[in-house]
Amino acid sequence: MSVSPPEAELKDALVTLKHQNPSLGISKIYALLLRTYPNWTVSEKRTRKILQNEGLVLSSTPIKRTTIAYPSSRVIPHLDVTQWTNKVEVNFFDQQKGKGLIATSDIGEGEVIWKEDPFIIAPEWDLFNLQMKSMACAYCSTPLADSSIAGSPIPCPASISSAFCPARFCNRLCLSRSAKAHPLLCPTQNPASVPLMKWTKDGRWMALHALAQCMSRILLASQKDEATLRADWEVMRGLAALGMEERFNYSFKSVGNAEPDRSSWKKAHQLCVEAFKEPKTVPEKKKLARLLKKPLPADVERELFEYDPCFLRNLGSMSLNLEGHGGLYTLHSHLNHSCRPNASVRHLDQRTALSRITIVAKRAIEKGEELLISYVNPELRYETRQSELQGWGFGSCRCELCVEEERQVKDEPVVPVPSGMEDLESELKAGLGVM
């Protein structure tokens, strides 16, 4: 009986096939998929969409690879970890691994280690669409219909009939906290941001959305005082970073055209400059000037707006540090990866603060042990996990699980080529599979 596979299972299969056959184009991968899974019903359009979303579309110009680049990482000066928990401390391991979190006491299985609200939130697109429809809190992203907080949602105070802002907030606390980033992304207060946010939404580019939120927060912090600016700026500078060019050159997903590509990076930079620094029209310039009355320090302005390497590094940093649902969290960003993690990230406050994360121990953790989460689904095949991690610039994973499974893969006997695949194999060897 033919079945339509779930999206996650199909994605896993396609990423694995592409990793094993990097020279094959979309049509050949599609044919290989149907032969490998004869009971699946999958359209070529669906295959193409997943491959494109994963950045696995071949280009005609092969990429020359040199020494692998790894993300850079730095400790955030004066970070007070105790504002979240007294159960961990920051440790810097080495230049390649960077920083991480070490348990300062024994932690029991199932124990809550800390809870954390986001530095910024660039929510998943379903939630973002609800925000744009005034159906989810524009700060914490909690669906307003599901909120247990009494009272009616609070609209953006700047919204007027002639310049509508769809932002609604759970309560006055969310409204107050939104002042850290919302004003510069509000279509009423800063209409110059509208093209940036529309282009981000149309392209479903979460990293750019997150960077827009970060830039807005830094710019607005500069309007308060030096201490606020430097505290927020150090958090952003402390995030693990790998520039877009490095990701393009060393990511397995960039064997073909990187998604988004270089032209998209330049367009993103142009829109950010127009939104936050040099609006195109006089009325837009006047509105931005009302929000940004104090000039940025020269070092911060350069790091935010200089295209290469600063803007590209910041854009790449967003992709590396965003939590799965789109939040960027200060302490969470210190957690390193293992395919056999001892901690997990959960969203437990779904009715009152959806964007708040809770870090829970998956097993007992001893004092001095590093806290580890999984950046990928640990249930995926060994090859697929390795491919996804290398795609983000993390190199080969050498956790206990991967070492064990690597040994098993090497010990597995060679599987004969299934009947009917000889043509595909010969085309691959002859280099005829490139589209």
UniProtKB/TrEMBL annotation:
Annotated keywords: Methyltransferase, S-adenosyl-L-methionine, Transferase
- Enumerate the InterPro entries for this protein: SET_dom, SET_dom_sf
Q: Which Gene3D superfamilies match?
A: 1.10.220.160, 6.10.140.2220, SET domain
| UniProt keyword Transferase present | yes
User: What's the short name of a Pfam family annotated to this entry?
Assistant: SET
> Which reaction does this chain catalyze?
L-lysyl-[histone] + S-adenosyl-L-methionine = N(6)-methyl-L-lysyl-[histone] + S-adenosyl-L-homocysteine + H(+)
Query: One MF term from GO for this chain?
Result: histone H4K20 methyltransferase activity
A Gene Ontology biological process noted in the UniProt record is:
methylation
Q: Which CDD domains does this one have?
A: SET_SMYD
> SET domain location, by residue?
86-376
Q: PROSITE patterns per the record?
A: SET (PS50280)
This chain belongs to which protein, by name? Answer: Histone-lysine N-methyltransferase SET5
Species: Laccaria amethystina LaAM-08-1
